[in-house]
Each structure stands twice: as structure tokens, then as C-alpha cells.
Amino acid sequence: MLPRDSRSVTLNYSRALASALNSMGKPLPFDARNILADIDQQERVPMERQEQLWQCLADSHSDPLLGIWLGQAIQASQLGLVGYLLMTQENLGEAVDQLLQYHPLVGEGGQFELRRGAQHVDLCYLPNYVCCAQLRVETVLAACLTQIREMTGGQLRAHSLQLAYPAPSLAIQHQYQAALQTPVHFGAPVSAIRLRPEDLRTRLVAADHQVMNRLKPEADALLKSLNNKSLHLRVAHLLQQEPQLTREQVASRLCMSPRHLGRKLTAEDASFRAIQDEVRSHYARRWLTEGKRNNSEIAAALGYCDESAFGKAFRRWTGASPKAWRMTGQREQEPA
After folding, report:
1. Tens-digit pLDDT profile for residues 245-264
2. CA-CA distance, 241 to 131, in Å (whole number)?
3. Spatial distance between the Cα atoms of 142 and 130, rounded to a whole number of angstroms
4. What is the pLDDT of residues 162-171, one digit of tens each?
5. What is the homologous superfamily of the domain 230-336 according to CATH?
6. Which residue among 29, 30, 131, 211 is least enclosed by CB atoms within 10 Å?
7. Does 105 have pLDDT greater than 60?
């Protein structure tokens, strides 16, 4: 059985979504109200409950720009400690550095990365979830765009927003451009806010070195408590969301080298190969039993170069070929 998802999101973020929806004049779905009432006394919201909240929002509001509107309505102060920590930095570059370090305090569902090019700098957001992925990614990036403008006193607008999703109709593309007042490019390799290198030197209007120094120790303590989770679990959760990830990609998501990842897993009596096999075997058997994907599609989804490589791995896991498993209709005997 795969390990239970131990990731979480700060309650402030869940409340900020409800507040944003209210400010937009959109009703909070009944089921969403029940979820919020259920988690109202928790400091951190389990990822499973947070995903239920997102699904309620997606099911109740069909607006293709819902994520953009939500992100624009979220205030930095609603993000608690991290929001204040970002606002009080000296310049945008320092705020981005803090975001890269402390974003798990807001939510452990995705990873921020800064990728530098010759003419631009991309603040990338890599989601580690499947449920309502586009809606959630657009909410996060729209919120970041909005905070960049507010933290710089309206001086700075990003070069563009890059979205790793197929382009919608031209009419909807125009709606994105109008809403964000920033060029939007679809079909990008990764979803990101594209900035100019000089943008990172822009001073923040609420810069306050003394306040920032008082906030950091608390942020460090909270981050340490989150990072104390088993590395085995963190690797498994990444692979559960994206089974095709390689050792190098997982290490990058966890901000460590592949060699360091291997050493730390060994210290927990685990290995990347064993965790990867556990996750891939689970999904392979499930997808073969469901019969909705052919072997080639399953191989690609699990990160194998071809159907033959997948077949060899499947025989090693189960002692049977994918074809034989599919024909006999075997099912995993896992607790419900």
C-alpha cells in the first residue's frame, strides 16, 4: 500500500481562497463551507482536505479564468508569516529568495524554482498534484504577479506569464491578457513568471530590515518542523503525483543533489529505486486493471522509454506480463 499523503497547507491559504471568492461576489459552495468549518481549528490543512476544497470550487464555478481572479484577490497579509516576510525584504530579488526557501510554509503542493537565462529570469512553479492542477497553478502564479506589483508600489510588471497548458480559444486568450495586463504565453515547457534580470533589483515599498529579522527565526523553526518528515515519504509523494520523474528530477524538487538524496535515503534504510518501483508497480497494476490505457500509454506515463522496457519491469514486479495481468483481471488487494 502506498504511504498516506502527509503534506499540508496553511489554514491561512484555505481561508484566503474563501475570502477571495467572496470578494469576487461568487458564492462559496455548500460543501466547501462544510470543509472550511471542519478544518477551522487546525493550523495546517491535510492535502487531502485541501484537494476536496479545490474540487468543490472547480465543480461549482466554470469560469475559465477562475484561478486568475482568485489569485488577484489574495492579499499578501492573508498568507501570514510568509507574506510579511516577503514584503519586508529590501528588493524583489531578496523576496524571491525567501519565497524559494519558505514557500512550503504556505503549502507543500508545489515547488518554486528560479531559472536564469541570458535575457530573462523565470520564477517557475512546479505542481506536485493532479487534482485541479491548472486552476491551482494559475491561482498561485496570479497571486505572485499581483504581489510583485503591490510590493513594488505598482512600479513593476512582469515580462510575461508562461503557462504549461494548451492555448484556449483566442477569445479566452484575450481575457487572460486583459485580466493580467501582462502578455500570456501558453504551451510553455513549465509554468512561470518571466522577469527581466534588472527587475530583481527593484526596491520593495514595505522594506523593513528590523521586522524581517524578527520574522526569520519563527519561519526557520516552522520550516524545520515540516522538513523533519521522512524523506522516504516526501520522495514517494512526489512520485505518486508524477510517476515518470527521474532521480535527478526528484532531487531537484527537494533542493538537493542526487548523491545527497541517495545518502539520506540509505540512512532511512530506503532507496530511490525501491520507492520508484513501489509507486510504478501500484499505478501499472491499477491502470492495467482499469483497461483505460494501452501498454504504450502506461509506459510513457511511468517514464519508460518504450513498451518493452515497461514489460520487463512489470515482469520483475509481478512475475507476469502486462498482457497476462490485463487478461486475468487481477486486482490489488489493498484496504479500502
Report:
1. 999 999 988 878 999 999 98
2. 10
3. 19
4. 999 999 999 9
5. Homeodomain-like (1.10.10.60)
6. 30
7. yes
What are the cell numbers at 31? 460543501
The yes or no reply on domain 8-215 and CATH 3.55.30.10 is no
Which three cell numbers mark 280?
A: 510504478
> Residues 268-283: what's their mean pLDDT?
90
The x, y and z cell numbers of residue 249, run together, are 528530477
Confidence band (pLDDT; 50, 70, 90) for 84?
very high
pLDDT of residue 291: 85
Q: In one letter, which amino acid is 57? A: L
What is the four-CA torsion angle of 86, 91, 94, 96, rounded to 10 degrees? 60
